[in-house]
Amino acid sequence: MPCAFWKTTPSEPAVSIDDEGSADILIAQHQRDPVTPLAGGQLLDDKFGDRSTLLTVDGSGHGVFVLGKNACAQDVVAGYLVDGVMPSDDLTCR
Q1: By C-alpha distance, which of 79, 14, 20, 15 is closest to 28?
Q2: Which of 78, 52, 53, 44 shows the shortest CA–CA distance to 64?
Q3: CB atoms within 10 A of CB 47
Q4: For residues 73 and 64, is the Cβ–Cβ distance under 8 A?
Q5: Residue 10 burial by Cβ neighbours in a 10 Å radius (0-12, 13-18, 19+)
Q6: Which parts of the chain fold into alpha helices (H)?
Q7: What CA–CA distance (Å, rounded) separates 43 from 30?
Q8: What is the pLDDT of residues 42-59, one digit of tens each?
Q9: Cα angle vertex 20, ends 19, 25, to 5°?
Q10: How far, in Å, CA of 84 to CA of 69, rounded?
Q11: Which one of 12, 20, 33, 68 is separated from 93 by 20 to 30 angstroms, measured CA to CA?
């Protein structure tokens, strides 16, 4: 949160997030992440339109992959990173 109050300007322009570009974006989001709330992941998924798939994980803390302990989420993200396997629809790992 402190960076929101820095008295400097960004070194680069903000990146535009829209429905144009690559269509293989996986967003992995814990339901109870205190740093990046679920609503932020959902909004990002909405902004990407059909370009993204949202993986919602029944967990808490920051970091679904590697730091997370949900086997379902680990398998989905590893499959995406290693083999390029994208879930066909938004998915929730309980």
Answers
A1: 79
A2: 78
A3: 13
A4: yes
A5: exposed
A6: 38-48, 71-83
A7: 14
A8: 999 999 999 999 999 999
A9: 70
A10: 21
A11: 20
